């Protein structure tokens, strides 16, 4: 066989090894114990250990010193912010995104009128990142009934050149990206319309935007959440050379045209993985997500897996 032919066969074999051909090939979540019931988790490492924030209960919090044993730590907020009532009768924030930049912790979150695109993304900041320490900075971006997209599920990326980008969105016309002002953490004055970067029939939400080895990677949750063992969430990804796309999957299909390479989906007892975020930790990049436990009456639980990037694409292990 010619050298080129051998290389092609080896490349195909590597692809088959890296991309699961069946649900059984996906890994189980890494070991976590204690208070691990949560939705839409976002994790940050602080001087006090790890903090995870999730949807509901004023952004419920879990803390851990070793990334394994987690305890309930209250919530990000101690009371609803006054402006939430303009958006959401429930005043129940969702889908936090927590990160550390320039000596401060930033917490982006969503408030929404459930099932409608009357929504807003808010921002809070903290010196410690701990529950109860957050100072709300108000509204970042808002959508109303006349809009064809939804301002929920924020994900912040701070680029190598110091530019700030926020991915967000769901359903309707899908996932968007806007540029932010690093001085305020809010949109640049006159920044224009958000860039459309992903869409899908049957539901798409929960973007997580990161940069790795010169590429921008956009993880999204596809399907439906929050239905216990009937949930159909699965995590797919595309990559681009610009934070505003176009994002293509491993087969070259645009995420705006329904593309997306699978990272994780239902397998065994671990149903509907999604609501994901990515944390760069001391031992590599972590995929942090929730799933529904088929052996615990569909209870939502925290999932954590490391990502292998050796193929140029994220593979959970």
Automatic annotation (TrEMBL):
Keyword line: Glycosidase, Hydrolase, Signal
Pathway assignment: Glycan metabolism; L-arabinan degradation
TM ranges: none
Any Pfam family hit: Glyco_hydro_43
Signal peptide as annotated in the record: 1-25
Coiled-coil parts of chain: none
CDD domains the UniProt entry points to: GH43_Arb43a-like
Similarity-based family: Belongs to the glycosyl hydrolase 43 family.
Name listed for the protein in its UniProt record: Arabinan endo-1,5-alpha-L-arabinosidase
Species whose genome carries this gene: Streptomyces chisholmiae
């Amino acid at each position: 066989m010619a050298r080129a032919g051998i290389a092609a066969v080896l490349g195909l074999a590597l692809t088959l090894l890296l991309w699961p051909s069946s649900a059984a090939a996906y890994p189980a979540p890494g070991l976590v114990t204690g208070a691990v019931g949560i939705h839409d988790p976002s994790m940050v490492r602080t001087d006090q250990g790890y903090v995870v924030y999730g949807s509901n209960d004023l952004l419920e919090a879990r803390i851990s010193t070793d990334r394994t044993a987690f305890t309930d730590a209250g919530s990000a907020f101690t009371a609803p912010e006054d402006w939430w009532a303009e958006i959401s009768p429930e005043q129940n924030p969702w889908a936090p995104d927590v990160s550390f930049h320039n000596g401060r912790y930033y917490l982006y979150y969503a408030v929404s009128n459930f099932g409608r695109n009357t929504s807003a993304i808010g921002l809070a900041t903290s010196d410690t990142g701990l529950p109860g320490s957050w100072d709300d900075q108000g509204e970042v971006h808002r959508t109303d009934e006349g809009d064809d997209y939804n301002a929920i599920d924020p994900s912040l990326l701070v680029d190598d050149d110091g530019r700030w980008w926020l991915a967000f969105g769901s359903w309707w016309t899908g996932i968007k990206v806007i540029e932010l002002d690093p001085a305020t953490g809010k949109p640049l004055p006159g920044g224009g319309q958000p860039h459309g970067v992903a869409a899908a029939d049957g539901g798409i939400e929960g973007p997580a935007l990161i940069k790795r080895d010169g590429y921008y990677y956009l993880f999204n949750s596809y399907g439906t959440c929050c239905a216990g063992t009937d949930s159909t969430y699965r995590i797919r990804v595309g990559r681009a050379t610009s934070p505003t796309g176009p994002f293509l999957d491993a087969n070259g299909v645009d995420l705006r045209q329904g593309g997306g390479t699978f990272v994780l989906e239902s397998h065994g007892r671990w149903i509907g993985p999604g609501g994901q975020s990515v944390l760069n930790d001391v031992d590599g990049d972590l995929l942090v997500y929730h799933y529904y436990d088929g052996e615990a009456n569909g209870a939502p639980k925290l999932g954590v897996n490391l990502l292998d990037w050796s193929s140029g694409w994220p593979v959970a292990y």
